Amino acid sequence: MVQLVFVHGVANRAGPDFNKNRDLRDSLFRQGAFAGQPLDIENPYWGDKGGSLVFGELSLPRKGKQAASFSLLGKQDQGAGAPTIAQIAAKDFGAAIDVLYALLVERAAENGDSLEPAEMAEFMAAAAYAEANPKPAWVDPDLSDDQFIKLLRQALNRKKPASYGLLDKVQEAADAIVDSGRNLVAQGLVGLVRDKLNPLVAAFLGDVFVYLRDGDRRQAIRHRVAQSIAAAHGRKLAGGGPLILAGHSLGGVILYDMLTDPKGAGLPDDLQVDVFLTVGSQPGFFEEMKLFAASDPAIVPGGAKALAAKPSATHWWNVYDPVDVISFRCQGIFEGAEDFMFSSVGGVLDTHGSYFHRPRLHERLRARLAALAK
User: Which among 43, 188, 258, 260 is most buried, taking Cβ atoms within 10 Å?
Assistant: First the structure.
């Protein structure tokens, strides 16, 4: 039985939404990346020990103030209409599939719904098809949304409408992809609304500062994570391996910090991690800033030792999205770390939290884990 410990990232606080997202993520793991394998999942919660704004976010610029729009590609066209799914797919078919299904999964989560078996089957079928067919010949930017979905369903050999209501909701999803207030699309246009961006950045900085500051809350966070790792480690020793540690956002930083300071973090002496997975995370950035307990200022490019030590894990896979402004690379900074760029057409406000809603992420993780098992 596979042992998975998932450490959540910033801005996660207990409540109905947190529980919905946790349950949906667990369901996607069981039916997606780990389909067909018995799976134990530990979800240590540390959000209540993170940062808090005691003045009720009074420090955040609000009142509808908006930063100037800018284009990453030098093109400014605020008046342009939303592109169709087909137009996005003509540029990047896999990213179009991901963003379409991720938006629909997120709507299911908002309603407290789980994925039905038929829905999950289509979710994974779409991912497998996109991986095998990065540029399908049938994709034409002049297709309407209805035509695109009809041809996609034919390609997936699915004739009956999915209970997602996919056909009815696709235009809503297309509009959401290019909402000028929150999203970045392939054309390079982005509008940054401080009312939405500030809370994300504030939550990130608040949780980071709390964790880096050695004290009771930092120790409480590490203790909770260590308990979950120890439980999964014990099941692995009893014949329930392999052991996979996954950290999203600051969760990846916490795991790296603990794995490189195992005694101080209270981890088992004989801990051996098979796969260390960081997604939308910042270990590379923190190491460049030399903020970890294990950071050595003498380890720099061109020095006697140019790479920081990899934690005691057989494999380290780091996934980042170039659109996600708080995800960073690790390869070339740590020994043995492998970077995987996961490009999306999502927005700067949506991308960071949507990795595990994307079908291709589960398909790629499933394929890599299957290759390790051979």
Answer: 258
CB–CB of 211/362 below 8 Å?
A: no
Q: What is the pLDDT of residues 135-166, one digit of tens each?
A: 999 999 999 877 888 888 888 876 555 444 55
pLDDT of residue 198: 63
Give the list of residues 6+ apart from residue 269 with CB closer than 8 angstroms, or none.
Answer: 262
Task: List the domains of the chain with CATH numbers.
Answer: 2-54+196-373 (3.40.50.1820), 82-177 (no CATH)
Residue 278's H or E segment, with its range, is strand 273-279
DSSP 11-66: T--SSHHHHHHHHHHHHHHHHTTTTTS-EEEE----GGGS---TTSSTTS--TT-B
CB 356 within 8 A of CB 28: yes
- Where are the alpha helices (H) located in the chain, listed in sequence order? 16-31, 85-91, 93-110, 117-132, 145-155, 166-177, 194-212, 216-235, 250-259, 262-265, 283-288, 359-373
Mean pLDDT computed over 244-253: 96
Beta bridge mates, 279: 248, 319
pTM, two decimals, is 0.82
**How is residue 76 written in tokens?**
């400014």
**Least confident segment among 17-21, 175-179, 362-366:** 175-179
Task: State the average pLDDT over residues 55-64.
Answer: 54
Which residues, 6 or more positions from 36, have their beta carbon under 8 angstroms from its beta carbon? Answer: none
pLDDT tens-place string over residues 12-33:
899 988 998 899 899 999 999 9
Neighbours of 154 (CB within 10 A): 11
Helix 16-31 and helix 93-110, axial crossing angle in degrees, nearest 10? 130
Q: State the DSSP H helix or E strand holding residue 3, giving kind and residue range, or none if neither.
A: strand 2-7
- Whether 249 and 10 have beta carbons less than 8 Å apart is answered as yes
Encoded amino acid at 171, one letter: Q
Query: Max Cα separation, the chain?
Result: 62
Closest CA to 163 of 112, 115, 216, 92: 115
Report the C-alpha gap between 101 and 253 in whole angstroms: 28
Cα–Cα distance, 259 to 138 (Å, whole number): 48
- What pLDDT is attached to residue 191? 34
